[in-house]
Fold this protein.
Amino acid sequence: MIPPLPAELVRDTIARAFAEDVTGAGDITSLAVIPEDARAHYEIRARDNGVVCGLQAAIEAFMQAGPELALDVLANDGDPVEPGETVLSVDGRVREILLAERTALNFLGRISGIATLTRRYADAVMGTRAKIVHTRKTTPGLRAFEIQAVRAGGGAPHRYNLSDAVLIKDNHIAAAGSPAVAVKAAKANTGHMVRVSCEIDRLEDLSRVMKAGAEIVLLDNFPLEDLRAAVVEAAGRVVLEASGGVNLETVREIAETGVDIISVGALTHSAPNFDFGLDAV
């Protein structure tokens, strides 16, 4: 079971989505075409194979459009779904249901697309020690939803935001002078509860940042032979994260080098939309 997002966060996000879609005039198509008292039963059905996620947002969309709509939730976030499978049904006034339709489907499609792509990556590395994690390359305002989707698809959490952990990257290193100098500064200026991660792009920097106190080392765009060498050299003393050049064709080979973590920006910035439809029954 995937933990739900905070109710207030979901409520506010859906309210902002409706503000984009509905102005003071309302849904003028439905108001013009559909009788006020028209009622019907609709179902949201998957149109592909994948992993569903985003039901909390879809439910909130219908509840904001019509608090008296009757909803029946037929799946859980993280469940596998097949074409034609119903994940949510709704009964009530047609105008209210159609008011929520696109907002509900937009969230379901986006978030389930991320969960589905993550599942493909997680399956690709099954049997290795590597965990698939997200990055901060998320849609502004939707990070919580998209990270939830990664977890639903079998991925693991990375840092949520800039306050979670120290992650020293190329621009920090350029300003500090070297990876080791940056790590020493981070260790001197953060509390003992904060872990320090440092990105390197050369194998020879691994021993230097470990000696400086890094607990996690991000191996940026390392060729496979250098990843293997880093695993041998680190010998379990630090967590090794591989990043860059990761796709579904390369991720298995990367995992088989023995790294602990593989971060994949594509999970959130390039996941295709998962197709759901709202059908009258």
